[in-house]
Amino acid sequence: MPNDSPLASLDRSGNYKASIYNDGVIPPGFVEIIEELEKLLEMKIWLLVQNSDDSWGEVSDKVYQGFCDKKAEIESNERCGLLIHSLGGDASAAYKIVRLFQRRTDDFYTLIPVYAKSAATLMAIGGKQVFMGMEAELGPLDVQIYDQEKDDYDSALNAVQSLERLNAYALTAFDQMMQLLLMRTNKKPDSLVGSSLEHAAGIVRPLVEKIDTIDLTRKSRELKVAQDYAERLMMANYTEREYSRIASSLVEKYSTHGFVIDRREAGQDRTPRRSSASLGLHIGDMSPTAEGLLDRLEPYLENLTVIGRIRIGAPEA
User: Fold this and answer.
1) For residue range 184-220, what is the model confidence (pLDDT) as tens digits?
2) Which end of the chain is more exposed for a tag (fewer CB within 10 A), N or C?
3) DSSP symbols for 22-54
């Protein structure tokens, strides 16, 4: 990539637009930081900054179509990055956007100044490396499903983990009853299995009978979709063992959808005794200057919706 940034020729009058979509004025200060990042990291930076309340404010098929319309601007095997600031959205759209970049270049990176959650996390892990700000965070990939009765979204993992907890509780109840009977009756273990099983089943049966098996199957399938997408996006940059473990952890490991996965946990623990909390993502090393630039973006990200490349003139969305 040339030493001068692709943004260097932009008019400093502040008439900035995004090639796909922008909501409101793009501040010159924001543009200058992106320009400095491009020079420092030697890559063309695309933007997915989402804050609006419409379909542009989440990862959606509309957003994917916007990137698809501009795919000719992704030059073959160029070094490029996608700067993400999003709470997520549709997993299939997220997958398609990242694959659009991956099909055109092996030198694709993601940048997370503040947060990329849910489906946006799925996008983040598709980069060759993930450049995260000092306070940046990712999130779990437990799919959110709309519950009509509650009129709210709920994690598909809740139903799946409920069954797992019931199973663990049943095993505990069985073990405890076996130990109690062995201690009090002095009978052989084989003769006590039936009574212990009946005791455990009696405790969990009323709860298990309330489970909607069709709903559970649907939610289990949605979680499997998220895991499959994650594995496919990481295949080019991770070993099979690595991407299988990371994808599984992101789907199943975390206790709540809003769980914070910071830069240290997201990366690879380089200590002799590897921490079980470490995901093992390829986190890009950044100079203090680059870290400072990502930090300087934070005030601008709170209200902007900017998608695509920055340029002069009206967006072509």
Assistant:
1) 888 888 888 888 888 888 877 776 666 666 565 566 6
2) N
3) EES---HHHHHHHHHHHHHHTSEEEEEE---SS
Closest by alpha carbon to 123, among 67, 71, 66, 59? 59
Please tell me the distance from the alpha carbon of residue 95 to that of residue 67, in angstroms, as a whole number. Answer: 12
Question: Please, which pLDDT band fits residue 27 given cuts at 50, 70 and 90?
Answer: very high
Residue 229: per-residue pLDDT: 94
Task: Please give the CATH number for the structural domain made up of 16-139+260-312.
Answer: 3.90.226
86-113 pLDDT, tens digit each: 999 899 999 999 999 999 999 999 999 9
- Give the Cα separation of 220 and 258 in Å (integer): 19
Quickly count: other Cβ atoms within 10 Å of residue 135's Cβ.
14
Could you tell me the two tokens for 17? 């637009």
pTM for the model stands at 0.78
How far apart are the C-alpha atoms of 106 and 245, rounded to whole Å? 22
Write the CA distances from 137 to 112, 131, 238, 265, 303, integer angstroms. 8, 11, 21, 9, 18
Residue range 281-296: mean pLDDT, rounded: 95
- The pLDDT value recorded for residue 144 is 54
The answer to whether the CB of 49 falls within 8 A of the CB of 304 is yes
Q: Are 305 and 49 in contact (CB under 8 A)?
A: yes
Q: What are the angstrom distances between the C-alpha of 151 and each of 118, 146, 148, 305?
A: 20, 7, 5, 27
- Angle CA(265)–CA(269)–CA(274) in degrees, nearest 5? 110
